[in-house]
Amino acid sequence: MRLYLFFLAVVVLTHGTNGFAQDGQHRPELSTSQFDVHPELDVTLFAAEPLLANPTNIDVDHSGRVWVCEVINYRQKIANGDIPERTEGDRIIIVEDSDGDGKADETRVFYQGRDVDSAHGICVLGNRVIVSANDSVFYLIDDDGDLKADRKEILFTGIGGTQHDHGIHAFVFGPDGKLYFNFGNEGKQICDAQGEPIVDRAGNVVKDSIRPYQQGMVFRCNLDGSEFETLAWNFRNNWEVCVDSFGTLWQSDNDDDGNRSTRINYVMPYGNYGYRDETDGSGWRSNRTGMHSEVPLKHWHLNDPGVIPNLLQTGAGSPTGICLYEGDALPEVFRNQIIHCDAGPNIVRSYPVENDGAGYQASTVNMVDGAKKNQWFRPSDVCIAPHGTLIVADWYDPGVGGHRMRDVQRGRLFRVFAKGTGTAWSFADRLTNESAIEWLKSPNQSRRFLAWSFIQKNKPADVIDALWKTWRNDSNPRFRARAMWLLGEVTDAQEKLESIVDTGLADSDPNIRIATLRFCRRYSSKLNVDAVEKKIDHADPSLQVRREIAVGLRDMQPANLAEQWIQLAMQHNGDDRWYLEALGIAAEGHWDACLDLLVVAKENGKISTAAFRDIVWRSRGRQTPQLLIEIINQPDVTDSQVLRYFRAFDFIKSLCSESSQRDAESRLGKLAFAERTPGQKPKVIFRESTNRIQLESLSPEQSARIDEIMSNCDDAEFVELALNFGDDDRDKKLLSIALENSDKKVGADAMAILMRRKKLGMVQRALVTSGDEQFARYVNALVRCGVREGGHVLAGFSDGKDKPMERRVAAVRALGKTSSGAGDLLWRVQNGKNDPELEPVIAATLHSAPWGYIRDAAAKHFPLPPFKDAKPLPAIADLLKRSGDNRKGEAIFAGVGTCAKCHVVNGKGVEIGPDLSEIGSKLSREAMFESILFPSAGISHNYENWLIAKDDGEIVSGLLLTKTDATTTVKDINGIVHEIDADEIEQQKRLKLSLMPADLIREFSEQELIDLVDYLMSLRKPK
């Protein structure tokens, strides 16, 4: 159903103020006293302004120097025009503790220029520094060792998301000698140094094009950018990726702001991570069969086959830097675990990971928390120094998100270390043959890279011998894995490489076996692949190892892939989503052969019913539709399970040929009309089957059955069926349903179908002949239906001077509830086309419109009355000194403030703008005032207001929910979702202004504003 109206773009976060910035609590020497710190840790200030400001990303080199992307020129032209530009450009600086006392005392400028404005990533690899900035990635190279960049070498170009948080992010060096990195969902595509689109090793252009890739992605390549691989996709804003010594990848991902769905991911190669619908790119709000009721699960399409589970969902947040701590200087709880910054809730956390089936699960351990005492603490990155201390970068600002910043003078670096271990900061040792292995074991990435490069380039015999000893004998499996990777790089003799494989595959540690499987893929050109395949134990007792074997099949594409796959599939327990998705990744492109073997295994009793059904649900083969139908028909399959299996049909359709689609629809028709015992399940089967059948696919007998059913079903079922099986004889009932249910979804849907069927004349006649109560209901249904023709009917009626004035007034007021209708009213005023008799109601309607551009234009023709009490607004610094009553504020939120009309708090309200249930955990009090007074200063991502110009001259305004090749979907201020056909769109533009009224202050007094802010600040994340 195509609907359309509009929306309110909402601010969740904006800038701070000068008054608060000058407050004494922001002195650097007080900063560590404002943290709640894990009892086994200490935190000290390493550096602060004026040594640095606004660190977006950092790295720590082999000597303990901290390299910083220092960003001042951040979206000035878009969100921060009130902040002066640094005309010389942003800087890459080096912050150093020259005397070893644990406090920085010197800053060097490594590079400055407009090409590093708003840089979001830095990776120090010896004298070559990778910078990720705007649309490019490049090396800055120091040829003479003076800590000044001498030249620039382009690595990648053409990346989307210039001056955008959701673009390119930092690179890291992996234990396998590869580079790993990612971009968020504004990255869109990536090109080589010459601007040519990159084609990855799978043969696909790396581009957000839905098939196969979309949204945020994770990549791997060589140091020179070659052998480019797309490892995973369909994230929203995966800020950074980290890789452990075994080659396992971890990262965070941000949700659509306000939905408390931020997540941590284990990155399974070739995984789809579910931010958008796999088939058409539609958003998580779009209705789909079997979707979860809970937003955090619904948000990531976790009900869809082909979506990798989440490791952990952390609620509201603005996740930033991440690292994998593989040192021993921190307490045991943090060793070999993810360390992560989340700037939204002002916290640095660790996520201890445990096995969970073939995947993992994680818990949360807070390390450094600034939420209670200073919400300006905005940790942006975390890195590991050579001796295992953490360095945490602090962007330091009253807010985060919406591309907005306020403070450009401050920035901090903190040291985090085990309690009582001192503040020494000296790294005088040099890389030599004797120290190379110890450097390779370092928790610091720069040292590991230098050791790897030194050994790979020079191949000193004594170091190679030590490397073999480390691989064979070291008690730390992570050191053994690092040695193994490097041995693959420096060893050419096949027998020696095969000895590594033999030892690794037989190791008692599953992580070593996993790393060995990855090693085999990494160095397959040096190995006898057929011989290696025979050594792999497809019945390995570890689910994680069997998962990795499955993923490896996708990589290696052996001739007997299906035969290897079925060995793994027969061990599925039917309840391990991680394992299931690994099987799906392995079978991609081979589903027909795999399903043939699966059916035989089921017939021979070699796989459980639960496992068989689970794999069929995930499958994408020629046999899948029939197998799904057979499962659905089983008496033990419940109603909810039926929905799950029907959802799987949606993923088959996009892959089928036209003849296969017809065959599938024919089978669904037989399923829909099969004789069954009455009950809820047959109703579900009928509804879901017919929703996937076109009218022309029905046989005469089935058409007759549809007639019978539609003559006896309830209104909701009738409307649902009329969408696919409507005809002229059923339009009268649709009109009746719209009349009787005008304030309900079923009534709006019925009217929308009539509008789509071009029954405008029928509805116009009903408006003329109806009584007053019926007229009001028809008008309400026309407004709620959201289809453009509904506005045409209302506009035509309001023009009719022969119509009763009270009905014309009602039509005008109804027009003002839609952006196109209000725009039409405004056009009439501007061009002298409005009826003078209607001018008072037109003026009132336009001034109460929720769209700022309508109100502003209307004000030129109909001047506004003065503000409430005519009292001027005091400075925010003065407002901050006053306290309010949050109980009164709650009443204002629901009443005079009208906030609940667009926001949900703890399940109450209307979901148009962001959910504010935890907004007090994200914004400082200062930023809260500004988000109300200046709503356009920092509009939250995914809540921007879009204007869509249609080919008939109408303007649609709304929250962009989904954009596919076929339709664009927006959500209006009334919470109604509207779909616009792509061929009707002439132009679309994201507005800079929020439609949250900038003059909301006129609705209440100064004290009421303060009460409202105090109430919002009380809305915090539960402990």
Tell me the number of helical segments per DSSP (H or I, 4 or more residues long).
33
Could you tell me the number of beta strands?
A: 35
Estimated structural class? alpha+beta
How far the N terminus sits from the C terminus, by CA atoms, comes to 42 Å
Anisotropy-based shape: globular
- Summed up, the domain count is 5
**Strand arrangement, major sheet:** 1-25-22-21-20
Report the C-alpha radius of gyration, rounded.
31 Å
Mean pLDDT: 89
Which strand-content bin applies to the residues?
A: 15-25%
CATH architecture of the largest domain: 6 Propeller
The name of the CATH topology of the largest domain is Neuraminidase
The low-pLDDT segments are: 1-22
Share of helix, binned: 25-40%
Sketch the major β-sheet: 5 strands, antiparallel
Q: So what's the CATH class of the largest domain? A: Mainly Beta
The CATH superfamily of the largest domain is: TolB, C-terminal domain
Keywords: Heme, Iron, Metal-binding, Signal
Domain Cytochrome c: 884-1020
GO molecular function: electron transfer activity; heme binding; metal ion binding
Protein name: Cytochrome c
